[in-house]
Amino acid sequence: MTPNLAPIPELYVSYDSAQKLKGEAASLPSWDLSPRQICDLELLMNGGFSPLKGFLSEEDYDSVVDTMRLANGALWPIPVTLDVSEKFAEGIEVGSDIALRDQEGVILATMTVTDRWTPDKAREAEKVFGADDAAHPAVNYLHHTAGKVYLGGPVTGLQPPVHYDFKSRRDTPNELRSFFRKMGWRKVVAFQTRNPLHRAHQELTFRAAREAQANLLIHPVVGLTKPGDVDHFTRVRCYEAVLDKYPSSTTHLSLLNLAMRMAGPREALWHAIIRKNHGLTHFIVGRDHAGPGKNSAGEDFYDPYAAQDLVRQHQEEVGIEMVDFKMMVYVEDKAQYYPVDEVPEGSTVLNISGTELRRRLREGLEIPDWFSFPEVEAELRRTSPPRSQQGFTVFFTGFSGSGKSTIANALMVKLMEMGGRPVTLLDGDIVRKNLSSELGFSKEHRDLNIRRIGYVASEITKNGGIAICAPIAPYATTRRAVREDVEQYGAFVEVHVATSLEECERRDRKGLYKLAREGKIKEFTGISDPYDVPKDPELRVETEGTDVDNCAHQVILKLESMGLIRAQ
Ligand code: PPS
């Protein structure tokens, strides 16, 4: 491939025009962009998504969904659409302009709305992602996060989104093109990644560059990646450490603010086009590139080689050469890495999978020197300390009077006796007094109450503390949402206090059951309101015939078995 490092067209207007337009745009209807839309807009404006000139029109969208091409025939595999709420869309006339703002309200661009339509999302899911299956993160996003209506039209760029982190490592396509020109790098191989790099990656990327007689660009995605990935702050510190392991002046690191869709083959082709726009001549594509994991039947969404096949098929048209990602393995007796198909016969090969690495980090176990670099390991350990040093949440649920608060209090005292981490009790009554005093007991209010508890618990967990929650929390879907909030940061231990309704009513410690039976308290859980029994809690405690101390001790044993507290 011959490098073409001439500047690529951007959608920005001049500084003076931008100042003028900003003043005028202040009175336009405004759309507050989602984090994904901000990523998309940045790459639209700086030419990373060339030849797109804005968010897709309906005609282009249909064509991209069906054929991976814009209506004019240009290759473009992923719909880049501006999804908005029905309410916002109702007030927008086709032909009018809207302002696109970041989450602080700063106007980044204006868009002339040429199209407004309600997409068939199931069809988009089937055609673009291969299945209408919510186990796929982008399909889940499409149905549960994205707005119902799409707006399309050309964008006028006023200013790029502001980034406060790693500014010097972020390059627009034109900045990278001029860097390559200045360095005299005529051939450059891009390596796309959303994971920390270890020794095998360093070996395979350097080998790929050497084979193509090219320089190397480590081009990690720092926009949005797969939920659950290592955060980009940690990853960039790791990449910076690995950069020193390459011979000097051979390799460059640049961050790409892309919002990935995990769309496998289509995504790989999209990545190739984006890299071409950034001035790259070669692009490494591996097994299961941008794969989303397993579908709801436990199978892979895509054939592991489909991404390589699709990129290979279109590489001439895109103008970038695909380089096979060579799986590297460590050969113990030779004390060096080999491509898996060149391992000397009879040798012992060592490898550590991603899952195994995460387990070792979680449990504070050794990571061998042949696997990673000490600096990378140190960064990962800083971000993922062993579970016994991380925050977590214990979430009790059960009927009123089941004993949740009493066990929660006993647990709190036992954990405080052990020391090490701050413990906060979010008991039902405490929360209703301090956080939710205006709420009643309708489904809507109970949900709000539990989501508030979940938010506070997730913040405590994120900051390394222990949150003990003890509300009734009668709805399974709400408990699940809280679990998701917390699990971003640490373990969520659901404890069902399984005292029967009859026993709670017999105890009637607050006299509320009597009033509920008499109809004096409405919507009373178990009497006149539902309770979804947890199907699969981490622990179920039976309180009838067991004292409080013993119940709390069962929780302690559970926490120990999960590695959340160390055996005394
Ligand atoms: S919920 O459903 O999780 O929001 O409820 P929670 O915040 O835990 O509040 C439950 C306590 O409020 C008292 N109470 C009622 N409970 C259930 N239903 C109705 N209608 C009701 N009205 C008042 C009751 O004392 C609960 O306390 P606990 O500690 O659970 O016995």
TrEMBL record:
Residues 169-382 form the Sulphate adenylyltransferase catalytic domain. ATP binds at residues 398-405. Residues 3-159 form the ATP-sulfurylase PUA-like domain. Gene3D superfamilies: HUPs (3.40.50.620), P-loop containing nucleotide triphosphate hydrolases (3.40.50.300), Sulfate adenylyltransferase (3.10.400.10). One of its GO terms (cellular component) is cytoplasm. Coiled coil: none annotated. Keywords: ATP-binding, Kinase, Nucleotide-binding, Nucleotidyltransferase, Phosphoprotein, Transferase. It comes from the Bacteria. GO terms for biological process: hydrogen sulfide biosynthetic process; sulfate assimilation via adenylyl sulfate reduction; sulfate assimilation, phosphoadenylyl sulfate reduction by phosphoadenylyl-sulfate reductase (thioredoxin). Its EC number is 2.7.1.25. Catalyzes the synthesis of activated sulfate. Belongs to the APS kinase family. This is Adenylyl-sulfate kinase. The lineage of its organism: Bacteria, Pseudomonadati, Pseudomonadota, Alphaproteobacteria, Rhodobacterales.
